[in-house]
Amino acid sequence: MEINKRFGKLTLLFAGMVLGVSLLLVIQNLPETVISSAEAAGGLVEGPNVVVPDRYVYYPGTEVLAKDEVRVIACGTGMPDARRGQASACFLFEFGNGEKIIFDIGTGSMRNINSLMIPAEFLTKIILSHLHTDHWGDLASLWAGGWTAGRPVPLEVWGPSGQTPEMGTEHAIEGFLQAFNWDYQTRAYKITPIPGSINVHEFDYKAVNKVIYQDKGITVRSIPAIHTGDGPVSFIIEYAGMKLVFGGDTSPNKWFVEHARNADFVIHEAFGTPEFFVKDYNQPPQLAWRACCEFHTSPQAFGKIMSTIKPRHAVSYHSFEEAFDGIRAGIRETYDGPLSVAMDMMVWNITKDKIVERMAGTPDRASGVPGPTRQPPPQKGIPDPMSDFIKGGEWGPGFNAQNEMLDEHSRKYNLEKMDWRKQKPWY
User: Fold this and answer.
1) What is the pLDDT of residues 145-182, one digit of tens each?
2) What is the reported pLDDT for 130?
3) % of the chain exceeding 70 in pLDDT
4) Strands (E), 29-152
C-alpha cells in the first residue's frame, strides 16, 4: 500500500514537470505580439535613459486629444463634508475640439482642478445639476481664483430653474454676487471688473431631453432628476457621435432609464450602504436608509439601472472611498458590465473604439498657468472702495523699506510711468 502511494506521488510529480516544460516551450514559440500584450505595467523599458511606456498615469498637458475624443477627469467624487483626500462632486469634460466644461463644482474640487494646470481663461463654462453645496460650493474659488490668475472674461453658468424663482440658479447666482460684493468691488477696482461678472443661463428643470447647450459640435440635453426636491437634473452630452451621461444626484427614475440607454459612458451616483452610514458616518439608522435608498441611489439600484441601459462603461461616484468594497459588491449583485468606482483624479479617455481609465499625476502646489489672452487693464471711473481715513493709516517707513526692490522691478518691466508710489504722501 505504501509503495503504491509513493508511486502515485512520483507519477503526479513527473506529470507536472512534463506539463510545465510543455507550457514553457509553447510560450517561447508564441508570436511576439501575443507575448508583449501580457507584459505588465505598460510594456518593456528599452534602457536606463529612455521614455518609458504608459504607466497607467495621465500627466496633464502632455497629451493632445484627437478631434473625436473626450477626456473626463473626476475632480470630486465624495460627500458634502469635503476631505483633504476627497472633494465633493465635480467632473471636468475636455473635448477634442478644445472646449472644456465643468459639470458641478462641489466643495474642495478647485484644488484638484488647479492641479491640472489649465489656464483660467479655458475654465469658464460650468453646468450645474442642482444647488446643493457639494455640487456648486467651490464656484467661489473658481470665480475669484480664476480672476486673480488672469481669466480675461466672465464665467458662464448653466443651471436648472426651481419650483419657484427663489429656488432657481439665477436667484442663487444673484445671491452669490451679493454675498461676495466686497470681494467684487475691491478686485474690480484694483484689477479689472470684467472677469468678476457671471452670465447665467437658467433652463427649465422639467424639460425632458431638451437642449440646454449647443456649441462647436457639443450638445448638452437635460432630463429631470429625483433628489430631495424639485430642481435637480441629469445631463446627456453628445459629441463626435458619442453619448455621455452625467447623472448629478438622483434616485432611480424613468427619465434616466429612457434617455441614457446605450450610452458610451455613464456617470451615476452609488451611495454607501445604510450600515456604512450608521457605523462610519454617524447617521441615525432612520436617516441612513433613506439617504442611501430614497433620495440617493444604492449600489444595488445603480447596478439595476446599468444592466437596463447597458452603457459601454459605467462609473459610480458620490461616497467615501472606505465604502468602495461594499459599493462594488452591491453593484455586482445586479450588474456585471464594465465599471469604475470613481475616486478623485481618475481619468477616462473616450473614443468610439475604446475607453481607457487612468489616474492623473498632478502636483500638490500648482500655480496659475498663463494663457494666450491678457486681462483688460483696470477701468477708469470705478469708485475707490478705500476711504481717505484708511489710506491715512499707511505707515511710510514700512512702505519705503521696499523701494530698492520695487525700483529694480520697475526698471525690468518698464513701469516708471505707472509708479503707484508717486501718489503717496510718504514716498
Assistant:
1) 999 999 999 999 999 999 999 999 999 999 999 999 99
2) 98
3) 90
4) 57-58, 70-76, 90-95, 100-105, 125-127
The pLDDT value recorded for residue 32 is 37
Locate cell 478686485: which residue? 187
Whether the pLDDT of residue 41 is over 90: the answer is no
For the stretch 202-227, pLDDT in tens is: 999 999 999 999 999 999 999 999 99
